[in-house]
Design a protein that fits this description.
The chain is mainly α. The protein has two domains: 135 residues, no CATH class; 112 residues, no CATH class. Helices cover 53% and strands 9% of the residues. The protein has 13 helices and four strands. Strands 1-2 form a two-stranded antiparallel ribbon. A two-stranded antiparallel ribbon has the order 3-4. Strand 3 and strand 4 form a beta hairpin.
Length: 282
Amino acid sequence: MLWPTRPGITVQHVLNACMGWLAKKEWDELLQGRLPELIETQERYRAAADTGQLLALLISEVHAQSKDPDKHRLNATYDKAFVGGGGRKLYNAIKAAAIHGACTMCGVGLASTLDHHAPKDSFPLLALTPLNLVPACVPCNQGKSKNFSNNPAEEPFHPYFDDLGSARWLYAGVRHVDGGGAVEFFVRPPGDWLPIKAQRLNHHFTRHKLGTKYEFEASRRLAARRRKDTHLLDSSGPEALRATLIEDADSCAAFDPNDWETALLYALADSDWYVNGGMKDI
């Protein structure tokens, strides 16, 4: 997964873009009056996320924010004015920052929506904050719980603030069974990660069903490679095929060491069964 840079758009930009709709609802003066508070909340969010204290901040604010008297107005402004009204250009600009248009949560789906990192039902003062909006595909957006969890092991990764490093943590294995084979994906956190970060990675992998998503993508790629790999095996032998798979894997790893295709290709190269003809049975 490759993550986009933080948006330069601020909550003030968003609110200004929504003013036409707000005026029709006669909410413009009310929410304009709350703008200083929204800006302050945005800056607290930024500062806490920069220092790894975002979850602690959210825990401290969830009760007050979830009871905010303007919760309905703020969330309706997001749904009606930002997503579907005058703020749509800003919405699209944040969404377009996704690397190659890919979902920041799974890396394979089309980032066609924005997800509230801190759910807007619990944190309406962050409903219009661009730093809280990350590009996502529909399944990942819907699969991420709308309920706020204060369990550190379940804290979602934040594409704008979390750093997963350049070491590999996504792996795959080729499982040979009678009559065929299958590829399975799994995560293996680097040894120098803190335990809580490793727990968050495992939770992320499970929550978004990444194993299933990557296995589907892999089955399509294996079907596309079958003819090429079979020809190379027949013409040059298993070690030449293995070398080609490693070269392909290295190229993918240079782009993203934790892309599903990187994991797939290294797994194929490591499989004696595959390089000796197993591709014919997948």
